[in-house]
Write a structure and sequence with these properties.
Elements lengths: L1 H23 L6 E6 L7 H8 L2 H4 L4 E6 L2 H9 L5 E5 L1 H7 L5 E6 L7 E5 L16 E4 L5 H12 L8 E4 L4 H8 L5 E4 L3 H7 L3 E6 L3 H8 L6 E6 H6 L1 H20 L2 H7 L9 H11 L11 H14 L17 H4 L4
Parallel strand pairs: 1-2, 1-3, 6-7, 6-8
Antiparallel strand pairs: 3-10, 4-10, 5-8, 5-9
Helix pairs in contact: 1-11, 2-11, 6-14, 7-8, 12-13
């Protein structure tokens, strides 16, 4: 018994040491992370890891490149101009359906945080989702998770996504302006964009996945959201680099759980609050439960994601998807406690 206990303790110590040593000796000189809308709360752990120097502490030199939406960020990695995506987990399933194998290795958020809302300016008499037929819906970028959630909700109401027009409006002030000036009739976006529009009475919220309860109601279960994911080949070739990034992200997740709204506001770039620091702090407090507390990806959640995508996209066949290749928790499990 004593030998077994000593062996277990020794193994745990060895794994922790490997994680530390691996992070300190990354295989590549620089890792480029592509993200679609970095200022969104959806990606807050990434910003915290960067701003608080966690990547540097782990010996990983990271460059973060911001795009208009998640689909654009993904295109950068598929095209070879970036190494890792900070984006929605469900893209790993969609990619596998095209025989492209990407794996999520650490989670940032455990709820999509996407809100579908209509304009109080162009649709003051809105009654049902059927009223959106023929309307323009603003999303961060066509093909992004905001587009997917909006299409999923519409389909559930009998509205085909081809019956509406999806317009890319980004994830910042441009999205707010598009709604307020009447360029779009509805919007599927995230905070702080949504909270800003709500405060000004510019929208009427229809579907809200910022809360865990609402997420389960919409999708029928937990739904993994923002994650770091990369091609299988990159992960296999650079395990120390991936471990370092994971360690940094887990550290950021834990910091967020203990941080106050003021702590967060002082850490992120001033532009993130979109000119309203108090609203930013209120939004953080309301969204905190959606943030992953430990970086772990829910296995049951991946099943929910697959089920939702199959319902949304008839090109994706459930029996053709190997979920075990779309995510791994092995790097999170090795992160220092």
């Amino acid at each position: 018994m004593k030998f077994t206990r000593r062996f277990a303790i020794g193994l745990t110590t060895a794994v922790a040491l490997m994680a530390f040593q691996g992070a300190a000796h990354a295989e590549v000189e620089k890792v480029t992370i592509a993200v679609g809308g970095k200022s969104l709360f959806y990606y807050l752990p990434l910003t915290i890891a960067e701003q608080r120097g966690y990547f540097k502490e782990e010996g990983v030199n990271v460059e973060i490149v911001d795009f208009a939406g998640g689909s654009k960020a993904l295109q950068a990695v598929v095209g070879g101009s970036a190494d890792v995506v900070s984006g929605a987990y469900e893209h790993t399933i969609k990619l596998q359906g095209k025989k492209q194998y990407f794996t999520a290795f650490v989670q940032q958020a455990r709820a999509p945080q996407i809100v579908l809302a209509v304009s109080t300016k162009t649709m003051p008499n809105y009654k049902t989702l059927a009223d959106l037929r023929g309307k323009k819906i603003g999303v961060t970028a066509p093909g992004s998770s905001t587009n997917m959630v909006a299409s999923f909700v519409l389909d559930g109401a009998g509205v085909n996504s081809k019956e509406v027009s999806f317009i890319g409006v980004g994830a910042g002030s441009g999205a707010v302006a598009a709604m307020k000036t009447g360029q779009i009739d509805a919007i599927a976006n995230l905070d702080p964009v949504i909270s800003s529009l709500e405060r000004d009475g510019a929208i009427k919220v229809l579907v809200d996945t910022r809360k865990m309860s609402a997420t389960r109601e919409v999708f029928g279960g937990d739904m993994p959201a923002g994650s770091l994911y990369a091609p299988e080949t990159f992960i296999k070739a650079n395990p120390k680099t991936v471990q370092g990034m994971t360690n940094a992200m887990v550290k950021a997740a834990r910091w967020i759980q203990q941080a106050s709204a003021d702590d967060v506001l002082k850490t992120v770039p001033a532009s993130y609050s979109m000119g309203d620091p108090e609203l930013y702090k209120l939004t953080f407090n309301s969204l905190k439960e959606a943030m992953s507390p430990d970086g772990m990806i829910s296995e049951e959640g991946t099943k929910t994601a697959l089920k939702s995508l199959v319902a949304f996209d008839d090109k994706i066949k459930a029996d053709a998807i190997d979920l075990n290749r779309t995510f791994t928790n092995e790097f999170v499990k090795r992160a220092p406690k």
